[in-house]
Write a structure and sequence with these properties.
Distance between the termini: 48 Å
Shape: globular
Order of helices and strands: HEEHEHEEEEHEEHEHEHEH
Largest sheet: 5 strands, mixed
Oligomer: single chain
Number of helices: 8
Protein name: AMP-binding protein
Helix content: 25-40%
Organism: Pseudonocardia hispaniensis
Radius of gyration: 19 Å
Structural class: alpha/beta
InterPro entries: AMP-dep_synth/lig_dom, ANL_N_sf
Number of strands: 12
Strand order of the largest sheet: 2-1-11-10-12
Keywords: Acetylation
Strand content: 15-25%
Length: about 270
């Protein structure tokens, strides 16, 4: 951070952080923990619909964010660009968000099953939606929506989620894994500036995020826990019948002690 050091103090209320006027969310959420020797901390317990489950540390997350940020730069993303992110609750969703933050590029996280906005320079989506043991088109639906709207992004990045073959438009569409394959992941290749003084190290907690569709989730649900150095559970599964409450299974397995969900997504016991 440029200028005089910012005097840091622990806030009286957790939502009154004395942030300076300028900061970089990617540094606050990821880099600061690596810089402070906490890169081995788990940032995400990823629980996809289909195994295997995996863990992503802050150091691994940093390199994946840097790699995708460099990939976006290779597509010509700059301060005048606008990135749309239309993904399920996979680890690639926060990676794409933080990559945009690292580049200081505005992004919109599109939730639900419908693409309501189309005015993007870059659009990030996936081949198909995997939900409840079934798949349904996502890339094909995006193509139809863009055609009806009469607008086209300069580039459309497609994450292989189900592995299904989808139509790819030459000169516009590119698979995520192909895009990141040839760019560096060294944080020095894509520094995030400005930076601000370190956040106080929090007591270790784990947050469970089973619902990405609520209004504040992209900020409160994704950036909030990372800025605190907390681990989160990214869970895209749906309750298999007749299991009464799969949340308890995931909460116990990952040691969750903070639950974040929309009112409609709360466990039955919490709504009772």
């Amino acid at each position: 951070m440029n200028g005089a050091p910012h005097a840091w103090r622990i806030p009286a209320h957790p939502r009154t952080y004395p942030f300076p006027d300028t900061l970089n969310a990617a540094y606050v959420c990821v880099d600061q923990w690596v810089d402070r020797g906490l890169g081995d901390r788990v940032a995400y317990y990823v629980r996809p619909e289909t195994p295997p489950a995996r863990e992503v540390t802050f150091a691994q997350l940093q390199r994946r964010v840097v790699r995708f940020a460099n990939a976006l730069r290779s597509l010509g993303v700059d301060a005048d660009s606008r990135v749309g992110i239309f993904l399920q609750l996979t680890v690639e969703l926060p990676i794409a968000m933080l990559a945009c933050a690292r580049l200081a590029v505005p992004c919109s996280v599109i939730v639900g099953d419908r693409l309501d906005e189309t005015d993007f320079t870059i659009l990030v989506t996936q081949d198909e939606v995997v939900r409840g043991g079934r798949t349904r088109p996502r890339k094909a639906d995006v193509d139809k929506t863009l055609t009806r709207a009469g607008t086209q992004p300069r580039s459309l990045v497609v994450l292989r989620r189900s592995g299904a073959r989808v139509p790819m438009r030459a000169g516009r569409d590119v698979y995520w894994h192909d895009l990141v394959a040839t760019v560096p992941d060294d944080p020095r290749s894509c520094p995030c500036r400005p930076q601000h003084p370190p956040h106080p190290v929090s007591r270790r907690r784990c947050r469970y995020i089973p619902d990405a569709g609520w209004v504040v989730d992209p900020t409160d649900g994704i950036c909030g826990p990372l800025a605190e150095g907390m681990a989160s559970v990214l869970h895209e599964d749906v309750p298999p019948h007749p299991e009464h409450d799969p949340w308890e299974r995931v909460i116990r397995a990952c040691g969750v002690n903070t639950l974040y969900a929309s009112p409609l997504g709360e466990p039955r016991q919490a709504r009772a």
